[in-house]
Amino acid sequence: MKKLIVLLIVFFRLISLQAQEAPAAEFYRLSLKFYPTFLVDFTGPSLEGGLEYRINEKWAVQQDFGYISTWDTRYFLSVDDMVGFRFRTSIRKYFGSDGGYQALAFGYKHVTRDRSDTFCREDCAYFEDIDYQLRGNDFSLHYLIGQKDEFWKIGLVDLNVGAGLRLFKRVRTPELPEDAFFSGINDDFTFRVRTNKWLLIPSAIISISVGIGK
Fold first, then answer.
1. For the structural domain made of 2-213, what CATH number should be given?
2. How many angstroms separate the Cα of 115 from the Cα of each of 13, 134, 135, 146, 191?
3. Is pTM beyond 0.85 here?
4. What are phi and psi of 153, to 5 degrees?
5. Among 21, 34, 50, 115, which is disulfide-ready with 64 (CB 3.0 to 4.6 Å)?
């Protein structure tokens, strides 16, 4: 993954050199973007795109949408089918004509995950394999720093990194009994499933998109 990020940065800088040939006052009013990171991130959206509207030289609004239908590989002892969607709205302020910007991004993600695990029952008097489902709701707020370069009169590449907070909750469905206790190695997962509480955690984000503009 680290090698891929390095390659993306190199590619990004090459495109940046091409962008310097364009007149400084020109920019795309409307940009259609595609995020190819799902090719290497199997826990992220299977398909994600965005639409940016440039209000003027300094301000822009972007709306992203991602569809999730993939495999969760965080638990190597089981493979879970995960389906869901993600929305993200960003308000951008461009520093100038070079394409650098800062942004505030608000996100929401909902996933449904089919799982099968071994649980303790009746204070671990016996163990039982149970198929069940988790539903997750995830709200996020991130501050982003990025660079968008426009080239060849129609193409664009956009890279940003940022940090923020994520508020999420995993809700188990009724087929998981109240006395079922997860017997695996992830105690934090057990806590979240049994309590159904909201958790607030720090979060980092990095994304790259390519697209066309006019």
1. 2.40.160
2. 42, 7, 11, 37, 16
3. no
4. 65, 0
5. 50
